[in-house]
Amino acid sequence: MRRIICSFAFRFCISSVPNQSHIPLYSESRDGKSAGYVSVILRDSRRQKTIFVLGSLALRSGVLPWDMSSSVAPNQHPNRLIAALPLGMQHAFVSKMELVLLRKQQIIYEQGEPITHIYFPCSAVISLMMMMENGSGVEVATIGNDGFLGVPRYFGEGFAFARGIVQIPGESRRMRSDLFVQELEGNENLRERLRRYAGAQLAQLARTAGCNRLHAAEQRCARWLLMVHDRTDAKEFPLTKEMLADMLGVSRTSASLVLQSLEQQAMVRVTRGKITILDRGRLRSAACECYQIGKETVDRLLS
Ligand SMILES: [Zn+2]
Fold first, then answer.
1. Using an 8 Å Cβ cutoff, are 117 and 174 in contact?
2. Cα 217 to middle of ligand 1, angstroms
3. Which domains does the chain have, with CATH numbers?
4. How far does residue 255's CA lie from ligand 1's centre (Å)?
5. Which residues of 99-129 are buried (b: 16+ CB within 10 A; e: fewer)?
6. pTM
7. Residue 287 alpha carbon to ligand 1 centre in Å
8. Ligand 1: distance of its center to the CA of 201 in Å?
9. Tens digit of pLDDT per residue, the chain (303 long)?
10. Which of 57, 202, 215, 228 is deepest in the core (most CB within 10 A)?
């Protein structure tokens, strides 16, 4: 255990963290196979520049329980679906899940493959990509801390209708599919909560089908950036023109032109492998109507 800890390169994700806040810190081994988690509280960090580690460090192949520190309120769970559950139900539900760290471009499951686990992203963002036989594809849904991956299982279907691929790396809860089905069968309240999100995802799929056909790549790119910002609360995240081209279903040249245009209008800054949102207001103006309609739908169904 000690050797593992020493070999860890900690990646602190503490930008924009207010004082007196609980935050998760992640660590990942150099081989990318193991991961750890520390719960901390920042206490008046601007003055004292001190981080107090309250939680204990647990290492187990990226899997560990949520309640590492009793001072972290369960109803502040980063996944909004889980956070919306009544407290007692939330504890019981989370206790049957693992915490995993998802890597950038990790394929959760392929189109047509069995859905082995249901994922409830916390800080990760996952794309559902509709893939064609020639290898081309386009994003049809974006799933972050507002939802869960594996909606077909909710409807009794055991196979994925689209590829699930991680766009923004981060943390997620996951539950085995068979356990998930058992939970649904025995819990009407949970079933109702998840039904609302399943409805929201169907609405997103329909909206995206129209958006992909009728709206310009630049509008769709602005929409996607805003959706990721909503789900991560991060202004900077990894993005390459290859990733963007795949998501928008356009050529790399077109993706590059879109990024150039947004950058020239001072909405974003693009650096090597990263994009930073500079002006969210202007980005909203550049996005198609699908962003606002989609956001209102999710907020209504999750309220
Ligand atoms: Zn649109």
1. yes
2. 9
3. 2-72 (no CATH), 80-212 (2.60.120.10), 216-287 (1.10.10.10)
4. 16
5. bbbbebebebbebeeebebbbbbbbbbbbbb
6. 0.76
7. 7
8. 15
9. 444 433 333 333 333 333 333 344 444 333 333 333 443 333 333 333 333 333 333 333 344 333 333 334 545 789 999 998 988 888 899 999 999 999 999 999 999 999 999 999 999 999 999 999 999 999 999 999 999 999 999 999 999 999 999 999 999 999 999 999 999 998 998 999 999 999 999 999 999 999 999 999 999 999 999 999 999 988 999 999 999 999 999 999 999 999 999 999 999 999 989 999 999 999 999 999 999 999 998 888 777
10. 228
| In the block, residue with structure tokens 């187990």 | 60
257 CA to middle of ligand 1, Å? Answer: 18
Q: How many CA atoms lie within 13 A of 234 on its CB side?
A: 20
CA of 168 to the centre of ligand 1 (A): 21
| Distance (Å) from CA 162 to ligand 1 centroid | 20
Residue given tokens 């047509």 in the structure block: 112
